[in-house]
Amino acid sequence: MSSAVATPTPIEVVRRARRRPARRRRLVVTGLALLLALVVLVRVTLGDFVVTLPDVARILTGTDIPGASYILMESKLPRAVLGCLVGIAFGVGGAIFQSTLRNPLASPDIIGVSVGASAAAVFAIVSLGQRGDVVSAAAVTGAVLTAALVRWQAGPGTSTRLVLVGVGVSAALFSLVSYLFTRADQWDVQIVLQWLTGSLNRADWSGIRLLTLLLLVLLPMVAWWSRASRVAELGEDTAAGLGVTGRHTEGLLLVAVLLVALGVAAAGPVAFVSFLSGPIARALNGGRTTLVGAGLVGAVIVVAADYAAAYLVPDVNYPVGVVTGALGAPFLLWLLAAGRTTRRA
Questions:
Q1: Does residue 322 belong to any structural domain of this protein?
Q2: What does pTM read for this prediction?
Q3: What's the CA gap between 65 and 81, in Å, rounded?
Q4: Angle ∠(266,264,209) on CA atoms, nearest 5
Q5: Is 20 inside any structural domain?
Q6: Longest Cα–Cα distance in the chain
Q7: CATH code for the domain in which residue 95 is found
Q8: Is residue 184 within 8 Å of 125, Cβ to Cβ?
Q9: Most exposed of 14, 85, 100, 138 (fewest Cβ within 10 Å)?
Q10: Is 201 helix (H, G, I), strand (E, B) or coil?
Q11: Cβ-contact 199, 317 below 8 angstroms
């Protein structure tokens, strides 16, 4: 005699429906973490000077291997670690912008935050003759002020208006950067170019430690405010009904601006990483926003692009921003051609 199949209760149905996205999110995050580990391993072991895995383990545990120790600890590993940190900052910051404002074009690259940071850094270099930490502080200040200006000019309107205002502000800042570039002497040109394209050439352990410390402060704030990001995607009326006010979203956007500003201060405006990371992670996660996934995607893109920039063309070392720009520009054109930038989007 066959037993009757028990009909699941509504509560069980809801629980099962919630488990599936959670399971997929864990698989996506785990897969991206493994991919990042593989990309970092390739970056620190391969290249012009090959360091074997046993030698890497020995060097990391304190053994001094002439030649290999210096190359690994002063060149390969700092670039890989800085690429991870910068990619995480750009990826999470960009995903917050896109999900909170519900617009795939609402990226720091598009609305002028990255350009504002670069313009302030170039001004500090060319006009004030500054270097080092002062330039980095100027980049952070420029990003925050540019974001505030764009938000103020856009007003309480839709995200489409914010994007349009951001494009206009970006054009004005590009003009300022071009003017400053024409006034730079030959000694400053190379430094200015790093701030215009994005590069990991300035990777050093002191800067990495400072960036790590700041990210350890900001990323927990993102986790705290991430509920506002998920609810904001449901629309302003629904979000307000669930208790998520404009103060929540504005606070989350401010944290995103600071994340992007720190990334620019550390490596320059690495093009399109903020723009690409969120949509890629969202597609992998079945159309759902995942800030952790976006951060991991950003790290993979920056580290892999830095390796490609160094070894794609023999005897030529491109800045990492050249490769990411080559990846991001076709994606932007495809997004526009696909008609996904409607007012409703």
A1: yes
A2: 0.87
A3: 21
A4: 25
A5: no
A6: 91
A7: 1.10.3470.10
A8: yes
A9: 14
A10: coil
A11: no
